[in-house]
Amino acid sequence: MTNTTTADSAKPIPGGTLVLVEFDKGIAWVSMNRPEKRNAISPALAFEMIEVLDALEIDDRCSVVVLTGSGESWSAGMDLKEYFRATDKLSYDERMRVYRANGTWQWKMLRNYGKPTIAMVNGWCFGGAFTPMIACDLAIASDDAIFGLSEINWGIIPAGVVTKAVAGVINQRDSLYYIMTGESFNGVRAAEMGLVNQSVPADKLRERTEALARTLIAKNPFVLRQAKAAYHMAREMSWETAAEYLTAKADQTRALDPERGQDKGMAQFIDDKAYRPGLGEYKRG
Ligand code: COA
C-alpha cells in the first residue's frame, strides 16, 4: 500500500513522488525516491519529507518509521546540483529557507520524533545522508552498503551538521580518519565503529529490520518516546543536572502514561508473579 488513505486515517499521507510510504501492520516504510539520482537529497525531496514525517507522527497506521531508499541506494547525500550549484544563484534569504528545510527533517524532526525510527541502509550512503541516518534512533545496514564522508574529495568539509552527527556516534580516530581521507567503507565496518547497530547480508536486511521494528512495536509507545528523549537530553548534562532531570522525567512519564505501564509492570511482577522484566515486557492492554 503506497500513500493511500484507509479507514484508520482521516487524511491521505502526503508524498508519493520523491518520498514513498508503504504501511505494513504498524510499520511505515518511508523511501527516499530518486533512484536514478541515487536518492540524492534535493530541496523538493526535503520539503516532501517534512510533510510526510509530520503526517506520520499522528497517523495510527504508523507505530515505527523505517527510513530507506528506493533502488540500490540509501542516499548519495545532498544533491550537488540542486542544493549547491542551483542555490548559489538564490538570494541569501531563499538559500537559508532551503537549507532550513533540510535541517528540519534531517535532524530536528528525526532526533525528536515521537515514534521510533530505524534507518535501513540498503546501499550508497554519502555525506549529507549521514545526518538523517544518524538522527534515526537505530540503524541496520546491508553488509555491502557503501558509506563515505566524501566531502573532502570534492573540496568541502562535512558541514550542514554532518561533522556534529558523526562525532556523536563514531570515536575520534575513526571520525577523523574518514573525514580526512574520504575513503569509503562497507556496512560491516560501519557496524564495527558503531555508526549502525548491525549489518546483515543484503538478503536478510528487510527481515532483520522488520524484526527490530516489531520488537519496538511490542513496547509501551509513550515510555519509548520518553526514554529516547531522555537519552538525548541527559547526554548533554552534568551528572547532577541529569539526576534531577531524569527523576522529573520519570515522574512525568508515570503521570502521563496512558497505559499506566509502571504500575502494571510492577503489579504483574511483584503481585501476580506473571512475568520477568529481565526477560520480556509486561502484558499490555
Ligand atoms: N548529487 C547530485 N547528483 C547525484 C549525486 C549527488 N550527490 N549522486 C549521484 N548523482 C547523480 C549523478 O550525477 C548521475 O546523474 P545523471 O544520470 O544525470 O548523470 C546519477 O545520479 C547516477 O550517478 P552515477 O555517478 O552515474 O552512479 P554510480 O552508481 O556510478 O555511482 C555514487 C554512485 C553514489 C558512488 C556516485 O554517484 C557519487 O559519488 N555520488 C556523489 C556522492 C557524494 O559525494 N555525496 C556527498 C554529497 S554531500
TrEMBL record:
Which GO BP terms sit in this record?
isoprenoid catabolic process
Q: Could you tell me the keywords of this UniProt record?
A: Lyase
UniProt GO molecular function: lyase activity
**Similarity section:** Belongs to the enoyl-CoA hydratase/isomerase family.
The protein's name? p-hydroxycinnamoyl CoA hydratase/lyase
Species of origin reads Massilia cavernae
